[in-house]
Amino acid sequence: MAKLKITQVRSTIKRQENQKRTMTALGLRKLHQTVIHNDTPQIRGMVRKVSHLLKVEEVK
């Protein structure tokens, strides 16, 4: 299964509460923190919701 490498590049300060919760659900708490998740529709939807705060790369 393909994987996504997700890195937080912008802060969640002064963001809507639902965006902060989405970042926490992705496992991101600090700037420049990176997590790897399976490429599923659920993760893609969460990434789309906060795409302006993230950098996303596909990992094979």
What's this, in brief?
By secondary structure, this protein is α+β, with helices and mostly antiparallel strands. It contains 2 helices and 3 strands.
Q: Layout of SSEs?
A:
Blueprint: E1 3-8, H1 17-26, E2 34-38, H2 41-49, E3 54-59
Helix pairs in contact: 1-2
The overall pLDDT, averaged over residues, is: 98
CATH class group = Alpha Beta
Describe the main β-sheet briefly: 3 strands, antiparallel
Compressed to H and E, one letter per element, the order equals EHEHE
Quaternary status: single chain
CATH topology: Ribosomal Protein L30, Chain: A
Biggest β-sheet: strands ordered side by side in the sheet? 2-1-3
Number of domains: 1
Shape: globular
Q: CATH superfamily membership, which one?
A: Ribosomal protein L30/L7
- What's the total helix number? 2
Question: Ranges with pLDDT <50 over ≥5 residues?
Answer: none
What's the total count of β strands?
A: 3
What is the CATH architecture descriptor?
Answer: 2-Layer Sandwich
Radius of gyration (CA) equals 11 Å
Approximately what portion of the residues adopt beta-strand conformation? 25-35%
